[in-house]
Amino acid sequence: MSGEVWLLLLAGLPLLGLQLWAIADAVRRRDLALAHQIGWLLALAVIPIIALGIYIVVRPPRAVQVSGGHADMARAEAIVLLAERRQRGEIPADEYGVEVAAIASYD
Amino acid sequence: MSDADGPTTLPTSRKDRAIAKIVSFLARAVFREIEIYIPEPVPPGAPLITVSNHFGGFSDALVLLAVLPRRPGIVARDVIWKILPAAWLMNWIGGIPVHKPADKGSATSNDEMFASCYEALEENGHILIFPEGVTRNEPSIAEVKTGTARIAIGARAHGADDVQILPVGIHYENKAALRSRVFVNAARPLDVDNAVADHETESGIVTANDREAVRELTDAIDVRLRRAAPDFDNWGEARSLAAAADIALRSQLDDPSAAVPLGLRDRLANTLADRPADDRERISAAVSEYRDDLEGIGFTDAELHGQLSTGRFLRSLVQQVVIAVILFPFAIIGAAINWIPFLLVKAVGLRRVAPSVNATIKPIVAFVVYGITWGLVIWWAISKFGWQAGIAAFVLLPVYLAAVVSFIDRFVLLWRAFRRWRARTGSDGLEGHIAAHRTAVVEAVLAS
User: Fold this and answer.
1) Which of B35, B150, B354, B448 lies at 20 to 30 Å from B47 by C-alpha?
2) Quick check: A77 and B261 in contact, CB under 8 A?
């Protein structure tokens, strides 16, 4: 393969991927007004590389992972919450024991 | 893990956005996973003082800047301002210098620091304080100093309304390692108005000179910080209770092959650390016995109880190999560009220094050496192909680095899948014996 083909594969392909991601991201974002969304889409279409560079710089960072709320970990989360309530003195030890026994699986 | 509704709100000014961007990129490069737990939101717009444990030096500030809802002014020892690049960095991110009598040649009064903090809080701002005043290498909280309480009460007396204190605990899976996990555990915020209400007199509002009010507020901060942050007697107990929490929680998962989130594990371990000594000893003894079993057969609890069938292992094998093949050419470019800064950061990590010192130095060195390397590549692209190529290089450099990291991750995931598949056949005949010791750990944790 010639140098140009390699350049197209190794630089053009990820740039195209990023360009598509930026377009999808701009459409999906809820913090942008419709006019700004249209502005970004036009810019990404007309001046692709420059607009992509600017979009990546000015886009707010992604949110971090927030602990909790997983359906498949409901029992584990409930046990941790109970232990924390007991630690803060919100439930007595005997009530904690009863509630943990009701939640936990000892298989 | 939800990735959608994190506490990171939109930074307001251009400078805030730039700082948030750089910090977020650095934090995601240094840590494989950043998780946060906030049980109760802080009133929006209220003046806020975040207090945190200080196990990881510079990494603590990096992690908190990446996860906290508003960019805080960081209260830090004024000796940092004596190192020029650090001084520039601290001034840019809005650091507030604090004098410590032990630091030779520093200022002699903290009047300016108090004034800066009052000013920030009066404008409904946000400041970050490490109230122990030192970086710790032990898994426990040192004595909480009175400075935070004096700032909170003083700011209130100067006119700041509804001051809130948010204690947070930073939990590192391995603070000296690159690409490990980190968990930020927030306690419930402390409302300063409520905390000092009993000290209010008819003659006037409580001030920072009221020693009793300062002492009480400091004690309240101390209690919440110890619940949020790791606070164990020693490293042996910290590891033992974390392992016990991990085993007990895995036993409660619907899918035992799923990983126990660091956040859940460390929150439960924190509550175990508060149990009476007898309970903790019983848990540690049960863990020790089970660990001996595991060492005997050469598997971890996660491998033994997250066993993979041959079909699932083969699916994982094909999936990881396909992704690795796609990533390979980009990973090669990434490796070619980044091997020198990578080795430099690795060399810094080999120094025989305290883990907290390593956790400070490594991100700073990484920031500098990767920054210089990428700057040189962008400069080369501009000079050879023009400025559009420079922009393309700027966009692609993080992609190539991500390709290297992801390529290596494929092999780590594949190795784990292999171990879990092997555990299916390797542990036959030992089930009853091991299961009894494992149940003993689960029961010791849940009954304590």
Assistant:
1) B35
2) no
Number of H helices, E strands in chain B: 15, 8
**pLDDT value, residue B288:** 95
Put simply, the answer to whether A61 touches B4 (Cβ < 8 Å) is no
Amino acid at B238: A
On whether any CB of chain A is under 8 Å from the CB of B10, the answer is yes
Work out the burial of residue B143: count CB atoms within 10 Å of its CB; fewer than 13 is exposed, 13-18 middle, 19 or more buried: exposed
Q: CB count, 10 Å around CB of A38?
A: 13
Contact pairs from chain A to chain B, CB under 8 Å: 150
What sign does the dihedral B52-B56-B59-B63 (CA atoms) show? negative
Facing B394 at nearest CB: one of A53, A103, A105: A53
Residues of A in contact with B280 (CB under 8 A): none
Rounded to the nearest angstrom, the gap between the alpha carbon of residue B394 and the centroid of all alpha carbons in its chain is 28
For residues B134-138, give the mean pLDDT: 86
What are the tens digits of pLDDT across the range B323-376? Answer: 999 999 999 999 999 999 989 888 887 777 776 667 667 777 888 888 899 999
Global pTM? 0.80
